[in-house]
Amino acid sequence: MANSMGRIECWKLYWRMTELGSLTRRYIVIGAFDGALTIVAIVLGALAAVVFFGSIIGPLDVRILVSAGFAAAIGLAISSGWGAYEAERVERKLEIQQLEKQMQRPMDGCMVDSAVRFATIWASFIHGFSPLPAAILPLIPLMFFPFDFILAAAISVIITMVFLFALGVWMGRLAKASMLAGGLRIVFAGVVTAIILVALAAVFN
Protein backbone atom coordinates (compact mmCIF):
# COMPACT_ATOMS: atom_id res chain seq x y z
CA MET A 1 0.00 0.00 0.00
CA ALA A 2 2.81 2.39 0.96
CA ASN A 3 4.49 1.85 -2.42
CA SER A 4 1.40 3.10 -4.24
CA MET A 5 1.27 6.28 -2.14
CA GLY A 6 3.33 9.43 -2.51
CA ARG A 7 5.93 10.23 0.12
CA ILE A 8 3.89 13.11 1.59
CA GLU A 9 0.80 10.92 1.80
CA CYS A 10 2.85 8.23 3.54
CA TRP A 11 4.16 10.73 6.06
CA LYS A 12 0.66 12.00 6.77
CA LEU A 13 -0.51 8.43 7.33
CA TYR A 14 2.45 7.70 9.61
CA TRP A 15 1.68 10.92 11.50
CA ARG A 16 -1.87 9.73 12.24
CA MET A 17 -0.85 6.16 12.98
CA THR A 18 1.75 7.15 15.59
CA GLU A 19 -0.18 10.13 17.03
CA LEU A 20 2.72 12.46 16.33
CA GLY A 21 0.64 15.60 16.80
CA SER A 22 0.54 15.39 20.60
CA LEU A 23 4.14 14.18 20.77
CA THR A 24 5.31 17.10 18.62
CA ARG A 25 3.52 19.65 20.78
CA ARG A 26 4.91 18.04 23.92
CA TYR A 27 8.50 18.06 22.65
CA ILE A 28 8.23 21.63 21.39
CA VAL A 29 7.12 22.82 24.83
CA ILE A 30 9.75 20.78 26.69
CA GLY A 31 12.54 21.79 24.31
CA ALA A 32 11.64 25.48 24.22
CA PHE A 33 11.28 25.61 27.98
CA ASP A 34 14.64 23.92 28.53
CA GLY A 35 16.38 26.09 25.95
CA ALA A 36 15.08 29.40 27.27
CA LEU A 37 15.69 28.62 30.94
CA THR A 38 19.15 27.15 30.37
CA ILE A 39 20.48 30.27 28.64
CA VAL A 40 18.66 32.84 30.73
CA ALA A 41 20.07 31.08 33.79
CA ILE A 42 23.58 31.84 32.51
CA VAL A 43 22.63 35.47 31.92
CA LEU A 44 20.96 35.75 35.33
CA GLY A 45 23.98 34.29 37.07
CA ALA A 46 26.25 36.90 35.48
CA LEU A 47 23.74 39.68 36.18
CA ALA A 48 23.51 38.69 39.84
CA ALA A 49 27.30 38.83 40.11
CA VAL A 50 27.28 42.38 38.69
CA VAL A 51 24.32 43.80 40.64
CA PHE A 52 24.88 42.21 44.03
CA PHE A 53 28.61 41.64 44.19
CA GLY A 54 30.12 44.40 42.08
CA SER A 55 31.63 42.23 39.36
CA ILE A 56 32.59 44.03 36.17
CA ILE A 57 31.57 42.54 32.83
CA GLY A 58 33.00 44.32 29.80
CA PRO A 59 32.39 43.83 26.06
CA LEU A 60 34.95 41.03 25.84
CA ASP A 61 33.25 39.22 28.73
CA VAL A 62 29.90 39.64 27.00
CA ARG A 63 31.28 38.08 23.82
CA ILE A 64 32.58 35.17 25.87
CA LEU A 65 29.18 34.88 27.53
CA VAL A 66 27.46 34.82 24.14
CA SER A 67 29.88 32.18 22.85
CA ALA A 68 29.25 30.09 25.96
CA GLY A 69 25.52 30.53 25.46
CA PHE A 70 25.67 29.34 21.86
CA ALA A 71 27.81 26.39 22.89
CA ALA A 72 25.33 25.50 25.62
CA ALA A 73 22.43 25.83 23.17
CA ILE A 74 24.08 23.53 20.63
CA GLY A 75 25.02 21.06 23.33
CA LEU A 76 21.47 21.08 24.66
CA ALA A 77 20.06 20.54 21.17
CA ILE A 78 22.36 17.59 20.49
CA SER A 79 21.68 16.11 23.92
CA SER A 80 17.92 16.55 23.58
CA GLY A 81 17.79 15.13 20.07
CA TRP A 82 20.00 12.17 20.84
CA GLY A 83 18.20 11.45 24.10
CA ALA A 84 14.82 11.64 22.40
CA TYR A 85 15.99 9.29 19.66
CA GLU A 86 17.19 6.66 22.12
CA ALA A 87 14.10 6.97 24.30
CA GLU A 88 11.68 6.85 21.37
CA ARG A 89 13.58 4.00 19.72
CA VAL A 90 13.26 1.85 22.83
CA GLU A 91 9.63 2.75 23.51
CA ARG A 92 8.56 2.21 19.90
CA LYS A 93 10.47 -1.08 19.78
CA LEU A 94 8.56 -2.25 22.84
CA GLU A 95 5.31 -1.26 21.13
CA ILE A 96 6.27 -3.26 18.06
CA GLN A 97 7.19 -6.27 20.19
CA GLN A 98 3.85 -6.08 21.97
CA LEU A 99 2.04 -5.83 18.65
CA GLU A 100 4.00 -8.80 17.30
CA LYS A 101 2.86 -10.87 20.27
CA GLN A 102 -0.73 -9.91 19.63
CA MET A 103 -0.51 -10.52 15.88
CA GLN A 104 1.72 -13.59 16.32
CA ARG A 105 3.93 -12.59 13.41
CA PRO A 106 6.95 -10.32 12.83
CA MET A 107 6.26 -6.72 11.83
CA ASP A 108 9.59 -6.02 10.07
CA GLY A 109 9.12 -4.20 6.78
CA CYS A 110 5.39 -3.60 7.23
CA MET A 111 3.70 -0.20 7.30
CA VAL A 112 3.58 -0.15 11.09
CA ASP A 113 7.34 -0.69 11.23
CA SER A 114 7.90 2.16 8.75
CA ALA A 115 5.58 4.43 10.72
CA VAL A 116 7.46 3.71 13.93
CA ARG A 117 10.81 4.49 12.30
CA PHE A 118 9.40 7.74 10.93
CA ALA A 119 8.03 8.69 14.35
CA THR A 120 11.36 8.00 16.03
CA ILE A 121 13.31 10.18 13.60
CA TRP A 122 10.73 12.96 13.71
CA ALA A 123 10.61 12.98 17.52
CA SER A 124 14.39 13.21 17.79
CA PHE A 125 14.49 16.05 15.24
CA ILE A 126 11.77 18.07 16.98
CA HIS A 127 13.20 17.57 20.45
CA GLY A 128 16.66 18.46 19.18
CA PHE A 129 15.63 21.54 17.21
CA SER A 130 13.06 23.08 19.55
CA PRO A 131 15.56 24.28 22.21
CA LEU A 132 17.63 26.24 19.69
CA PRO A 133 15.38 29.23 18.88
CA ALA A 134 14.39 29.55 22.53
CA ALA A 135 18.02 29.35 23.64
CA ILE A 136 19.23 31.92 21.11
CA LEU A 137 16.51 34.43 22.05
CA PRO A 138 18.09 35.51 25.38
CA LEU A 139 21.44 36.00 23.66
CA ILE A 140 20.21 38.51 21.08
CA PRO A 141 20.27 41.59 23.40
CA LEU A 142 23.81 40.71 24.47
CA MET A 143 24.91 40.77 20.83
CA PHE A 144 23.28 44.17 20.26
CA PHE A 145 24.40 45.85 23.50
CA PRO A 146 27.80 44.36 24.38
CA PHE A 147 28.98 47.64 25.97
CA ASP A 148 26.12 47.79 28.50
CA PHE A 149 25.76 44.37 30.05
CA ILE A 150 23.18 45.36 32.67
CA LEU A 151 20.84 46.79 30.01
CA ALA A 152 21.39 43.83 27.70
CA ALA A 153 20.84 41.32 30.50
CA ALA A 154 17.68 43.08 31.68
CA ILE A 155 16.26 43.05 28.15
CA SER A 156 17.29 39.41 27.81
CA VAL A 157 15.42 38.43 30.97
CA ILE A 158 12.32 40.42 29.99
CA ILE A 159 12.25 38.91 26.49
CA THR A 160 12.64 35.43 27.93
CA MET A 161 9.83 35.94 30.44
CA VAL A 162 7.56 37.25 27.68
CA PHE A 163 8.45 34.21 25.59
CA LEU A 164 7.73 31.86 28.49
CA PHE A 165 4.42 33.60 29.08
CA ALA A 166 3.48 33.18 25.41
CA LEU A 167 4.48 29.52 25.61
CA GLY A 168 2.22 29.06 28.63
CA VAL A 169 -0.64 30.86 26.88
CA TRP A 170 -0.26 28.52 23.91
CA MET A 171 -0.32 25.51 26.23
CA GLY A 172 -3.43 26.83 27.96
CA ARG A 173 -5.14 27.37 24.63
CA LEU A 174 -4.33 23.83 23.50
CA ALA A 175 -5.66 22.45 26.75
CA LYS A 176 -8.74 24.69 26.51
CA ALA A 177 -7.86 26.01 29.95
CA SER A 178 -7.10 29.48 31.25
CA MET A 179 -4.47 30.98 28.97
CA LEU A 180 -3.55 33.60 31.57
CA ALA A 181 -3.02 30.95 34.24
CA GLY A 182 -0.96 28.89 31.81
CA GLY A 183 1.25 31.84 30.98
CA LEU A 184 1.75 32.86 34.59
CA ARG A 185 2.57 29.30 35.60
CA ILE A 186 5.43 29.10 33.11
CA VAL A 187 6.70 32.56 34.08
CA PHE A 188 6.66 31.45 37.70
CA ALA A 189 9.18 28.76 36.80
CA GLY A 190 11.42 31.46 35.38
CA VAL A 191 11.08 33.58 38.52
CA VAL A 192 11.92 30.60 40.73
CA THR A 193 15.00 30.01 38.59
CA ALA A 194 16.07 33.62 39.08
CA ILE A 195 15.64 33.40 42.85
CA ILE A 196 17.64 30.18 43.07
CA LEU A 197 20.46 31.63 40.98
CA VAL A 198 20.68 34.78 43.09
CA ALA A 199 20.71 32.66 46.25
CA LEU A 200 23.50 30.48 44.87
CA ALA A 201 25.47 33.53 43.84
CA ALA A 202 25.17 34.85 47.40
CA VAL A 203 26.48 31.55 48.77
CA PHE A 204 29.47 31.23 46.46
CA ASN A 205 30.60 34.87 46.44
Task: Walk me through this protein's architecture.
This protein has helices spanning 7-17, 20-53, 59-103, 111-129, 131-136, 140-144, 149-174, 179-204. The chain is mainly α. It has one domain (2-204). The longest helix is centred in the middle third of the chain and has 45 residues, at 59-103.
In short:
With 205 residues, the protein is an all-alpha fold. It has helices spanning 7-17, 20-53, 59-103, 111-129, 131-136, 140-144, 149-174, 179-204.
Class by SSE composition: mainly alpha
Residue-averaged pLDDT: 82
Kindly state the percentage of residues in helix: over 70%
Radius of gyration: 21 Å
**Measured distance between first and last alpha carbons:** 66 Å
**What count of structural domains?**
1
Sheet-strand content, in percent, reads: under 5%
Secondary structure tally, helices: 8
Low-confidence stretches: none
Element string (H = helix, E = strand): HHHHHHHH
Number of strands: 0
Layout of helices and strands:
Blueprint: H1 7-17, H2 20-53, H3 59-103, H4 111-129, H5 131-136, H6 140-144, H7 149-174, H8 179-204
Helix pairs in contact: 1-4, 2-3, 2-4, 2-7, 2-8, 3-4, 7-8
Please supply descriptive tags for the structure shown above.
84% helix; mainly alpha; 8 helices; 205 residues
